[in-house]
Every structure is written in C-alpha cells, then in structure tokens.
Amino acid sequence: MVRTSFGAALDPSKCTASSEYWRGNRRFYLNGEASQEGCFTSPWFKGSHPVMLSYGRTVAPWYASHVHHGVDVDMPEGTPVRSGVAGTVHVRPSTMGASYGSKRLLVRSDGRDHVIGHLGELAVADGQRVQPGDLLGRSGTNGCEQQDGPHLHFEVRPSGTGYQSAVDPWESLRMSRA
Ligand SMILES: [Zn+2]
Asked: Where is this region: Disordered (predicted)?
C-alpha cells in the first residue's frame, strides 16, 4: 500500500506492489495487474512515479459510475511532461472535452490522439509540431476534480474522436520501471 500526501515529494521506495493506491485518505485503484504496480518512468514524463488510477476503472474517489478513460500517474506539480511521439499539438480542441483543465492538449500522431490532462503550465502552442522529447508543459492540478491532487491524465483515442472512443493507453505510455 502506498500513502502519500497531496503534492508531497515521492519516495520511490514507497512504490511497493499493491493493487490499491492511497493519497492522503483517498483510495485510488489499479487494475490488479502487477504490471501497473510500482514506480515508472516514460518518454512522456521525467522522473519516477506510481500509477494511481488505471484505464477502465469504474471506482474512484470522485465518481462511482463512470469509466476512467485514461491512466492517471501521480506526479508532483511542475514535473516536465514531454511528447513521446512526433506529431502536432492541438490545444483545447473541441473534441477533447472540458474536464482536463484549461491547459489541456493532445498530440496527434499516426491516426491517434494522445490526450494530456491537468497540466499546470503549457510550453507549446496550438498547431505546433513536436518531436519525441520536446517539452509540452508541466504537471499540475488544473481541472483535477475534488482535490485529487497533481497528476498526469494520459489517454489515447483514434484521431478526432471523443473520450467515448478512448482505448487502453498503457502501450502508448511505454512505461519502464524506475
Ligand atoms: Zn484521469
């Protein structure tokens, strides 16, 4: 079991295997797959961070009956978030939906939209071409519901579609243990 307080610096040694994840007194949920337990790094973000909520979960602290369309990765505010692909940035596109914060964006690449939610700072402009490793922005709490704390919401959909079409983004995150 992992317990951290909101925004606290993470101690990778606390990324122990568990299918549940705690932030303060709030319980988040993994899919019960050992592959999603522990701390990870990814081409999409810097550092070592635990997953707090898996794709497809229908239980979370702030809702009981919806499906989570992405993967939430716990990270302190200000963590650099980078593009994992070569593509075109779309800032606040109409297809994205409003529940990802005012600094929401997606990176369109190869028929896929990589949705990045809850950034606190944007480092790119609408229409900008990015390469792998380019800084998109910094993590934050923008649009996070009910104080669930700073995290990155990462989602993948076929280009131009809404959240209802989201697919499991795990492969696209290209996580490795860290
Ligand atoms: Zn999320």
From this structure: 130-178
